[in-house]
Amino acid sequence: MSVDQAIFKPQRYRSIWVTLRAFSGFFLLWWLLHLWNGNPLQLPSPLKVLEALWLLMCEGEIQEHAYVSTLRMLTSLLLAVLVAVPLGFCMGLSRQAEQYIGPLVEMLRPISGIAWLPLGLFIFGVGDSLPIFIMFYVGFFPILLNTLAGVRQTDARLLAASRTMGIRPLPLLLHVLIPSALPTIMVGIRLAFAASWAAIVAAELIGAPSGLGFAIEWYRQLLMTPKVFAFILAIGIVGYLCDLGLRFLQNKLTPWTEGRGISS
Amino acid sequence: MKHSAFEQHARVVLRNLTLPVLLLVIWQLWASTLPVGSPAPSPVKVLETFFELISKGSLVSATVQSLGRVLMGFSVASAIGIALGLMMGTSPSVRENLDPIIESFRPIAPMAILPIAILWLGTGTPTALAIVAYASFFPVVVNTVHGVSHVDNKLISAAKTMGVSRLSILMRVVLPGALPSILLGTRLAMGVAWTAIIAAELAVGAKSGGGGSGGIGQMMFVFYAYNIDLNAIVVCMTVVGLVALTIDQIFKMLEKRLIPWRHEI
What we know:
- Chain A has 264 residues and is mostly helical.
- Chain A folds into two domains: 1-38; 52-253, MetI-like (MetI-like fold, Orthogonal Bundle), CATH 1.10.3720.10.
- Chain A is 81% helix and 0% strand.
- Chain A contains eleven helices and no strands.
- Chain A has helices at 3-7, 9-37, 46-59, 61-93, 95-108, 117-124, 129-152, 156-164, 169-207, 212-221, 225-253.
- In chain A, helix 9 packs antiparallel against helix 11.
- The longest helix of chain A is centred in the last third of the chain and has 39 residues, at 169-207.
- Chain A starts with a helix and ends in an 11-residue tail after the last helix.
- In chain A, 41% of the residues are buried.
- Mean pLDDT of chain A is 83; it is low at 1-6 and 259-264.
- With 265 residues, chain B is mainly α.
- Helices cover 82% and strands 0% of the residues of chain B.
- Chain B has ten helices and no strands.
- Chain B has helices at residues 2-32, 43-56, 58-90, 92-105, 114-121, 125-149, 153-161, 166-208, 216-225, 230-258.
- In chain B, helix 5 crosses helix 6 (125-149), helix 8 (166-208) runs parallel beside helix 9 (216-225) and helix 8 packs antiparallel against helix 10.
- The mean pLDDT of chain B is 84.
- Chains A and B meet through helix 2, helix 5, helix 6, helix 9 and helix 10 of A and helix 1, helix 4, helix 5, helix 8 and helix 9 of B.
């Protein structure tokens, strides 16, 4: 869709209408399936789920678990950024550093974060540190690879021009390299977020006594299916909101470009 | 000249090997300071366990079982995903109606629907299949839509001018045009699917008390919870990584084979 179409107002109302229509179709289908299935333990009616969601929100239970999960996610994402971005710059700027570190990264990357769960349970035990470790691991690689790609993509003419003008290393980093790599890094962070938000459920399902993933499993064991669905919805909503926040940050930090990164 | 090129190459290989070898040596040294009965893994013991598990055949059969599940779930998901993606890419009305729903399911991780899958399908293979299919559906459909909607419009118009039938346009123009994107989607999907199967098998193992549904994820869980053997867990992790690497390489080779006109992806 082109830009002037999006600004054209009736078009915008139309897109809201289309979304509403799509969702009502979806809910209708769900409701019919629920009638056909007839077992509220397997498939509760959408109304029951919304009611459960509302009640859980009123009691503050969803906020509590969502807060714990989001805090873990932010901690691990921050750690991953702090480690991966400098490392990515090192590897991008020095062939030697890349030759040393690259193979190790390529060896570890195929091992999915979730495969670390059993070993992680031994090392960290059940608690906060296991989900944080898993999410850090999962988020580390997209950020590293995108930082590396971002640094590499820096326009050689810009580098040459700044060198001709006798720039020092620090201003070169601050004014040339970082602004040019930032869009790709932001894409990496968004990918890292998506990956670690997907991993948090697994990590909390198995290895944490709190959080959204834990709550889902808890209510499944109690056979309170509407609450299970409500928490799944909550995971989707929180994930969506976080992505919205990151996209906002992306627009704020790198307004000059729509960065496209590599997906690992 | 030749000599120096060789030297250069040797230096790169040496640098590549430094860190992994160093870490392995440190790990082995650290493990040898521990008391004899310690369960902590060490590279030598991991290697021993690896050969032991291979000779028993359990490692291979578990891996094959997981791979079979992945392939099945993946094929179902890519069949549906590509068909749906083609429809969404070619018809705007289908696209605008399905897009909101797909986009709102996308942030829901496959592991999040695992509890529901267990409720519906029990703790056996069907659950694992459902999780894999769910996980790999999204990359396929999103990339197919992207590929189809980026097919050169001039080509389609040209084909229409020449009176080519709609089906032929779809098969001869749209599909080849979208193929690079579709292949990228399936490669990503396969990676996600392999991650998802490990997660599903682990969690199913964790929640059903190690039932007999097998797979390498379950094997890991058994080594974690019943016969505690960290060396075997590390072996399983390595195998998981190797399989992921192999899958990725196979798909990259396929990409080169199927779309020789575009090597840069």
